[in-house]
């Protein structure tokens, strides 16, 4: 299942789309369960075609194409999705394709074998409400011990469960939560409200170390 390092790898793979102009948006036929696409494709197409891509970003476990209009095209791989450019895996499972011009990439695609992913276009206002800091915590690559304590120290949940809460820290899933706590030498069943300041510091340090190393190796969970 793609977590922060895998999605960061996807983002880097399509980063060259920044500066491109979108020439087309197509939802491709697939015999499997359809992914979620919103708004309706014809409405979405009118808002993206002819627009420039200002930046290619990542928000937690999502790849975000920020358009010059302020709209964000958010691609969420979930369990089995991929975001890429160039050759795709089995084309049977290609779900969405954006045509591009003006850069080295000719297209960006969203691929999903099981149909659990989502592609959604947000206005700047919708993005702030749905995916702003009130809904997502700090990114796992930059989270501090103060961030974690402020959000979790009063919780009675097991710390491993709490680290999966995207409102507390964005981008961590089951695989990396387990590795982070192993490196920090904190038992995953320990209640958050029983952790000392020193242990929160170890968890925050381990979070950055584990995720940075995984990004360096382009992730570890894509094949799981």
How would you characterize this protein structure?
The structure is a single chain. This protein is an alpha+beta fold and 224 residues long. It has two domains: 4-131, N-terminal domain of MutM-like DNA repair proteins; 145-216, Helicase, Ruva Protein, domain 3 (Orthogonal Bundle). The chain is 31% helix and 23% strand. The protein has seven helices and nine strands. The chain has helices at residues 4-13, 41-48, 124-131, 145-152, 159-163, 174-184, 197-216, and strands at residues 21-27, 36-38, 53-59, 62-67, 72-76, 81-84, 94-101, 107-112, 118-122. The protein has a five-stranded mixed beta sheet. Strand 3 and strand 4 form a beta hairpin. Helix 1 packs parallel to helix 7, helix 4 (145-152) crosses helix 7 and helix 6 (174-184) crosses helix 7. The longest helix has 20 residues, at 197-216. The radius of gyration is 18 Å and the shape is elongated. The mean pLDDT is 96.
Topology:
Blueprint lengths: L3 H10 L7 E7 L8 E3 L2 H8 L4 E7 L2 E6 L4 E5 L4 E4 L9 E8 L5 E6 L5 E5 L1 H8 L13 H8 L6 H5 L10 H11 L12 H20 L8
Parallel strand pairs: 2-9
Antiparallel strand pairs: 1-7, 3-4, 4-5, 5-9, 6-8, 7-8
Helix pairs in contact: 1-7, 4-7, 6-7
Quick structural summary:
The chain has 224 residues and is α+β, with helices and mostly antiparallel strands. Helices cover 31% and strands 23% of the residues.
């Amino acid at each position: 299942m793609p977590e922060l390092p895998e999605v960061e790898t996807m983002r880097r793979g399509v980063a060259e789309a920044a500066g491109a102009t979108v020439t087309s948006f197509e939802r491709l036929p697939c015999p499997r369960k359809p992914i979620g696409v919103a708004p309706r494709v014809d409405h979405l197409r009118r808002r993206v075609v002819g627009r420039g891509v200002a930046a290619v970003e990542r928000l937690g476990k999502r790849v975000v194409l920020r358009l010059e209009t302020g709209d964000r095209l958010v691609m969420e791989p979930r369990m089995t999705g991929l975001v890429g450019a160039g050759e795709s895996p089995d084309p049977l499972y290609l779900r969405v394709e954006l045509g591009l011009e003006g850069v080295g990439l000719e297209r960006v695609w969203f691929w999903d074998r099981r149909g659990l992913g989502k592609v959604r276009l947000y206005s700047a206002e919708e993005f702030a409400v749905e995916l702003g800091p009130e809904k997502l915590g700090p990114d796992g690559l930059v989270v501090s011990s103060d961030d974690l304590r402020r959000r979790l120290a009063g919780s009675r949940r097991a710390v491993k469960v709490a680290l999966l809460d995207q409102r507390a820290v964005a981008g961590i899933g089951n695989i990396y939560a387990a590795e982070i706590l192993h490196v920090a030498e904190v038992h995953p069943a320990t209640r958050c409200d029983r952790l000392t300041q020193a242990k929160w510091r170890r968890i925050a340090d381990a979070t950055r170390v584990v995720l940075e190393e995984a990004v360096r190796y382009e992730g570890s969970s894509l094949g799981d």
